[in-house]
Amino acid sequence: RSSYSCCYFVLPCCFFDFHGKYSRRQSKKTQYREYLDFVSQVGLVCGFHVEEDCLRIPSTKRVCLIGKNRTYSPVQHAVIDRQITQYIHNRQPCALDSRDRKTGFNHNDGSDNVCKEADTESPGDEAETTGRVWMPGFQPREKEEQVRNCATLPRDFVDDVVLSVANLLLNATQEKSCGSTDSVSTNSWNQGESLSLKEVAEHLNKETLKRLKSEYGGLQTLLKNSHQVFEVLNGRVHIRDWRKEKPARKNMPEVKRRRSAEAFKTRLCWFFLHHPDGCSLPSESCPYAHGTDELR
């Protein structure tokens, strides 16, 4: 609706209508096929020749819809826009329910019927907002979406939290084994205790927690992002023991093997720098650099 010269490409995924979740109405089709038909119908109502294609991507939902050419001339743009407004108005839950009760649902619900209805019904003020406000209360999202997955937090802040949580887990082991030196081997590598996210949060200061609360997932997301150091399973935090990690599969695709090799030794090993026992792996086996001289 933004302009007559507009073209579009859409890759339908989640099943949503204009006013909420899309409700199925055709049991003979799969939910995905029915939804694709609905999105295609929207393109037809908007006056496009809708083309369908299948992308070569690793996804079960890879059918895309493309609108490159219009079905009407530029002079009809205002008329078509009123028809689009009527179509959106008719797809409101209350409008669909009342229509279903009166006449029964029309499975085709094609653009031709919508166009005919547009001439006889008017949704009030909505029809007068062509080219300006398309729907009362509609608020488009900002052009730039704020990233809130802990990825943009300052590096110093993240490093401090990681070090604090790691020390907390390591100290918990020392407290548990205090006084029982027989149970600790001089050759053992201290993996620390596992604590729940709640227990970890209780040991962090209020300012840190307040800052993490503004991120999606908060503390849990930050710890999961720190994959090298932590493992978060069933709401509990563990220090990762790289000796237990499964080696890369020999039958791994060449592209993945090459990428893995390119990333080898490109970052410093956190355990080599901060763990009291050093890294659990020898230098030649660790994917991270044991010192700056190993960095690639």
From TrEMBL:
Major location (coarse): cytoplasm
Keyword hit for Zinc: yes
EC class of the enzyme, as a word: transferase
Zinc finger boundaries on the chain: C3H1-type: 263-293
One Gene Ontology cellular component: cytoplasm
Domain of life, source organism: Eukaryota
Gene Ontology biological-process annotations: tRNA methylation
Annotated ranges, domain C3H1-type: 263-293
EC numbers for this chain: 2.1.1.211
Annotated GO MF terms: tRNA(Ser) (uridine(44)-2'-O-)-methyltransferase activity; zinc ion binding
Reactions this protein catalyses: uridine(44) in tRNA(Ser) + S-adenosyl-L-methionine = 2'-O-methyluridine(44) in tRNA(Ser) + S-adenosyl-L-homocysteine + H(+)
Localisation: Cytoplasm
InterPro entries in the cross-refs: tRNA_uracil_MeTrfase (IPR011671), Znf_CCCH (IPR000571)
Zinc-finger found in the keyword field: yes
Chain residue ranges for the region called Disordered: 107-130
PANTHER family according to UniProt: TRNA (URACIL-O(2)-)-METHYLTRANSFERASE-RELATED
Function as written in the Swiss-Prot or TrEMBL entry: Adenosyl-L-methionine (AdoMet)-dependent tRNA (uracil-O(2)-)-methyltransferase.
Family listed: Belongs to the TRM44 family.
Protein name: tRNA (uracil-O(2)-)-methyltransferase
Native source species: Nothoprocta pentlandii
Organismal lineage: Eukaryota, Metazoa, Chordata, Craniata, Vertebrata
